[in-house]
Amino acid sequence: MRLVIAKCSVDYIGRLTAHLPLATRLLLIKADGSISIHADDRAYKPLNWMSPPCRLEELEGQWRVVNKAGEELRITIEDILHDTSHELGIDPGLVKDGVEAHLQELLAAAPETLGPGFTLVRREYMTAIGPVDLLCRDGAGATVAVEIKRRGEIDGVEQLTRYLELLGRDPLLAPVTGIFAAQEIKPQARVLAEDRGIRCVVLDYNALRGVQKDELTLF
Amino acid sequence: MRLVIAKCSVDYIGRLTAHLPLATRLLLIKADGSISIHADDRAYKPLNWMSPPCRLEELEGQWRVVNKAGEELRITIEDILHDTSHELGIDPGLVKDGVEAHLQELLAAAPETLGPGFTLVRREYMTAIGPVDLLCRDGAGATVAVEIKRRGEIDGVEQLTRYLELLGRDPLLAPVTGIFAAQEIKPQARVLAEDRGIRCVVLDYNALRGVQKDELTLF
DNA sequence: TGGTCAATGTCGGGT
DNA sequence: ACCCGACGTTGACCA
Lengths: 219, 219
Prior knowledge:
Two copies of one chain form a homodimer.
Chain A: E1 2-13, E2 17-29, E3 35-38, E4 48-50, E5 54-59, E6 62-67, E7 72-85, E8 95-97, H1 100-109, E9 119-127, E10 130-137, E11 143-152, H2 154-167, E12 176-185, H3 187-195, E13 199-202, H4 205-217
Chain B binds a DNA duplex through residues 12, 14-16, 18, 42, 44-45, 48-51, 71, 96, 98-101, 124, 126, 129-131, 149-150, 153-155, 159, 186, 188.
Organism (chains A, B): Dactylosporangium darangshiense
Protein name (chains A, B): Endonuclease NucS
Main location (chains A, B): cytoplasm
């Protein structure tokens, strides 16, 4: 990893055109060849960047980065104030807990959370337009499609609606009802869902984890 | 801006929980108080970060970053290999060209691109569920809602469908037809749109710019 | 490779 | 502060 503080201007010509006027910035060159240009604010986002795979051609006062798609970053260097390189090695990577996949896992292990007598048919039930998070049967044996979100918003309701429309045409499954399950459901999403006859269920991650733990202690 | 290369492990407790095992990484501390932790790959995304506003408390071998929402980043420092600070000043900021706003601007100036006799009623026509990109009238005087995208995908069709449903209930506007206009329209989005009676129009950014330029030269 | 979806999405604008 | 939509979204996963 190479860290360069430089007075520079930048032009990007690719999916759009963008220009950065002359100023002092951080140029962050990584071992995979990627480069990002940071100002002294916004933790997350560089002002400009080029993702790998790409190639950096370093000329006098003019750096040029190009990728396969023909996108180009042109960095005009006025002055270099700092230039150091550091050996970092391969990172062991990030371990996450609490994302949607875990909610799905926990709910698949405890479908009765959604209603009495609920049983799981399949997780990630494939359809032509994408996978349904959970396919269940309710206490009466009717098919229920479940869309799981961390935060339930309108997009999620639309997604579930598309699945319901498709699944409802399958005579082996019809009639199919829907459940929109999330840790938090935005009011507008709830209105839209209920207007379409989709039941909303608010999930408690810790409680679900507790349920699973209790079940584990049975063995 | 402060650049630290350190052997560290990191824990994030917030919207989710995440852990980074011990390794050498870049800690990027910006003037606005934000911090991001980078490995030697992936141009764009840090492994971990905290967005401003947040506060960094620096103890012996243990950094702690917290924000208003109670999210926390705990950085355990094993060894510091590099530590420099640099004055960057305020960045003049990025100038973009070719984003959706420009497409909308150009199309608003040349509504006849969408069909003979088309006229503009309003850009960003407000509704209860959000702004319609363009509201037009066709050659026969009927209302047309136009959704503009750089890349037309299913989400955009859903969005336009919601607007059409709402606008169609307004007796002053009804009946309302829809146009899905984009520089590129994905096949699945086209199928969905046309299935719902929405016309698809592929836009040529350069041609549109040409039209506008021609009009400008008339004056 | 292309399609679909999640994300600690981030960011900006309007109400 | 909430809501909504764009983003060079990025990134992962699966057919």
